Amino acid sequence: MNILPWDERERVLVALTRGMSALEVSRALGVARTTLSRWAILAGMTFTLGHHGGVAAVDMDRVVTVHSGRAYRRLTLADRSYIQAARSLPEPLSMRRIASELGVSASTVSRELSQHGVEYATQRRYVAEVAHYRALTARPRTRPGRLADPWLRVAVVAGLNAKHSPQQVAERLRLKYPNHPERHVSHETIYQALYVQGKGALRHELTVEKALRSGRTGRIPQSKLPRRSSRPWLEGARLTDRPAEAADRAVPGHWEGDLVVGPDNSGLVTLVERRTRYALIGRLPGKRDSTTVIDVLQDLVKGLPASMRKTLTWDQGSEMAQHAEFTIASDCPVFFCDPHSPWQRGSNENLNGLIRDFYPKGSNFNHVSDVDIEEMQQLLNDRPRKTLGYYTPREKLGPLITGVALAS
Fold first, then answer.
1. Residue 375 CB: number of other CB atoms within 10 A?
2. What DSSP character marks residue 275?
């Protein structure tokens, strides 16, 4: 059997996904409708026969929805077009590189290529439009619920009829059959079976009038309003909002900051410049509230030229709740890392570790003088660093600041 060129097959498949009938595609591209049918089926598309047959029309600009509780996002047609282009290069980009550009995991890209590839001769080709069409028309995967098991279903119904709560039923099964996980069920599954009417529902099998002490037959609806943030100062100032130039350390003036704390509300404010690792350290006067931290920060950066006050990256601690005041005073916007992600301000984590060599955990900074703090700062800034080619932070920062005396 002669195999027609791939480019011709790709044009046919794309035309079908765009809603053209088989007759229109056949006339426009000169390919027999029987060939169109075979190609569509091999590409995983449902093909309808007949004079005006083809594939069902779908809105190709629609985004496949995903459950709000899921941590990942669905690929768009633009995403899939990028994947196709990246894999079609003379030297195709790796799956990890593609995933990084799209902001998804490498497994998402790998799964996309394996699930939506089109067989051609002895190869598998990827067509963005075909892949997106298949994603839009795919039926959601379902699996039988836990209570489809006859034995488990009888045991749950018996427990509910004995006026046990769903949680009591679930935990009793775990207690009686610790080595038989197939006889375990979560209490949430039981609640779902009680609340949801339809296939798999339990309510009609119960002999008790009330399966739950509350007597409810459905969940209390939750508010559709977005949850009020407990940290409103983060809005518009997350790491994703930070200028891209701050990420690669090529441009000076981007800082990372944090607190090093001790007993009796004592602590230090620590800053480090991302490119040169130059440190600024200030002592807190026995208070760690936001107003005090902002005041110390302003004192630390007031001697820097504007070119060296581009951004400050901090964790999500409440001590920066008034960061807007710092930005107004210093013209240096503050951005916040993701929760539990200290590597996003790794230079500052390293600096704080060096400070702990001087003052181990438990040190009370209320008993440390400002002179001692300045001496430590000077030693750290005159410390050769491997990452700087064994230059010191002061030597690296000096040429960037002309006519400004660096703090000792």
1. 13
2. T
How far is Cα 296 from Cα 287, in angstroms, rounded to an integer? 11
Pick the CATH number of 233-400 from 3.40.50.2300, 2.30.180.10, 3.20.20.190, 3.30.420.10: 3.30.420.10
Q: How much is the pTM?
A: 0.46
Please give the pLDDT value at position 198.
Answer: 41
| Secondary structure class of 282 (helix, strand, coil) | strand
Q: If you compute the radius of gyration of the chain from its CA atoms, what whole number of angstroms results?
A: 31
| The pair of three-digit structure tokens given for residue 388, joined into one six-digit string | 């700087």
3-state secondary structure of 59: coil
Extract the tokens encoding 52: 């005006």
- The DSSP symbol for 238 reads B
Name the nearest CA neighbour of 260 among 382, 339, 334, 368: 368
User: pLDDT by residue (tens digit) across 153-166?
Assistant: 888 888 888 888 88
Please compute the mean of the pLDDT values over residues 209-214 and round it to a whole number. 56
- Of 70, 75, 56, 88, the C-alpha closest to 115 is 75
Tell me the residue type at 63.
Answer: V
Alpha carbon distances (Å) from 15 to 7, 11, 55, 386? 12, 6, 10, 58
Are 145 and 189 spatial neighbours (Cβ–Cβ below 8 Å)?
Answer: yes
Residue by residue, DSSP assigns 176-198 as: H-TT-GGG---HHHHHHHHH--S
d(CA 13, CA 128): 10
Amino acid making up residue 60: M
pLDDT above 70 covers what percent of the chain? 78
Q: Provide the pLDDT for residue 275.
A: 94
Please state the domain extents for the chain.
Answer: 77-137, 146-205, 233-400
Q: How far apart are CA 48 and CA 202, in angstroms?
A: 41
- Return the closest-CA partner of residue 212 out of 141, 163, 157, 283: 163
C-beta separation of 95 from 106 below 8 A: yes
Question: What 3-state DSSP class applies to 243?
Answer: coil
Closest CA relative to residue 272, chosen from 260, 251, 254: 254
Q: What is the four-CA torsion angle of 377, 380, 382, 383, rounded to 10 degrees?
A: 170
Paired tokens of 143: 């699996």
Short-list 321, 223, 320, CA closest to 271: 320
Which pairing describes strands 118-120 and 123-125: parallel, antiparallel, or unpaired?
antiparallel
Contact by Cβ (8 Å): 151, 183: yes
